[in-house]
């Protein structure tokens, strides 16, 4: 019996390993074609002020797979990083995002909307050609007025501080600003924060999700807000899902929010409708 069980377990384990390997392979192969087949999409999630104006948006990549349906970036970004496809993928994201922004500027944007945030993978950021690629795209799409912000993670800074800071300084001189994404989950030191041309810390969702019930999380959020303020950095709270969370954050001086409570990420056309429907004001649909 024991043997049989062991064998069953083994087979189960083996099968799931095989399934994982197969899934991985399908993702990797599919990604090669995804751009050419026009399967990638730019989705956007609003970033809102305390007064509930949409002051910016984060670009979130989606992959509309012909058989697997809509795939989250969590499923394919790390695979793209490991297989060396991330540069091509993010070059597409950058190009499409800036083209979209140009299009909106032509059609008209509410005055409150001042920033488009784009996630940049460390592997891509550290590529020798990254800076010139970005500068060429900014030039090509003639973006003005709206700030382009890159979201990077703390670990990128640790791995190669001097190259990272050099790249950031060049891009900052061309109007790009920087946010630390998932702040609080990585390894950045306070010294790094003060030495880099940063604008924003995005408090990771994991500190927000239990904010109402977890005093330690509330204390950490408070410390982050005070620290950021002292360093002259703005803060965005990520993953805000309830009005109670918003209230606690507001009480501690948080001024920018992003999360399902305000709006889920959505396709570009519906985001633009939401943005322009009330001149940038986000009317919350009451949820039960
Ligand atoms: P992120 O940059 O931290 O983006 C925020 C993620 O949290 C998004 O997941 C968003 O949908 C989700 N989110 C926002 N508000 C809430 C909320 O209230 N509750 C919950 N539970 N989740 C919320 P998404 O779109 O699945 O993206 C996951 C991650 O994939 C992103 O995390 C980012 O690290 C990465 N990603 C997305 N697009 C790109 C890209 O173009 N390049 C790179 N390198 N990474 C990307
Ligand atoms: Mg992000
Ligand atoms: Mg994040
Ligand atoms: Mg993340």
TrEMBL record:
Where does the source fall among the domains of life? Bacteria
Annotated EAL domain residues? 24-279
Signal peptide (UniProt feature, chain positions)? none
From the Swiss-Prot or TrEMBL record, give the protein name. GGDEF-domain containing protein
Top-down, what is the taxonomic lineage of the species of origin? Answer: Bacteria, Pseudomonadati, Pseudomonadota, Gammaproteobacteria, Oceanospirillales
């Amino acid at each position: 019996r024991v043997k049989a069980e062991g064998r069953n377990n083994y087979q189960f384990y083996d099968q799931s390993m095989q399934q994982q390997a197969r899934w991985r392979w399908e993702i990797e192969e599919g990604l090669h074609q995804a751009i050419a087949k026009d399967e990638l999409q730019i989705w956007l999630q609003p970033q809102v002020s305390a007064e509930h104006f949409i002051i910016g948006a984060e670009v979130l990549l989606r992959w509309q797979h012909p058989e697997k349906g809509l795939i989250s970036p969590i499923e394919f970004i790390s695979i793209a990083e490991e297989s060396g496809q991330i540069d091509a993928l993010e070059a597409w994201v950058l190009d499409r995002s800036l083209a979209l922004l140009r299009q909106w500027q032509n059609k008209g944007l509410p005055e409150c909307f001042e920033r488009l945030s784009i996630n940049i993978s460390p592997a891509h950021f550290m590529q020798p050609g990254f800076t010139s690629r970005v500068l060429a795209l900014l030039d090509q799409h003639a973006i003005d007025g709206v700030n382009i912000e890159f979201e990077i993670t703390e670990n990128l800074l640790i791995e190669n501080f001097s190259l990272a800071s050099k790249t950031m300084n060049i891009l900052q001189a061309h109007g790009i600003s920087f946010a630390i994404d998932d702040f609080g989950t990585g390894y950045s030191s306070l010294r790094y924060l003060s030495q880099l041309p940063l604008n924003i810390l995005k408090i990771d969702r994991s500190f927000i999700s239990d904010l109402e019930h977890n005093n330690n999380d509330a204390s950490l959020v408070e410390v982050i807000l005070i620290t950021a303020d002292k360093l002259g950095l703005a803060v965005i709270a990520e993953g805000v899902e309830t009005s109670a969370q918003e209230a606690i954050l507001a009480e501690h001086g948080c001024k920018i929010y992003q999360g399902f409570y305000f709006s889920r990420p959505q396709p570009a056309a519906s985001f633009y409708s939401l943005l322009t429907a009330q001149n940038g004001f986000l009317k919350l649909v009451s949820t039960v």
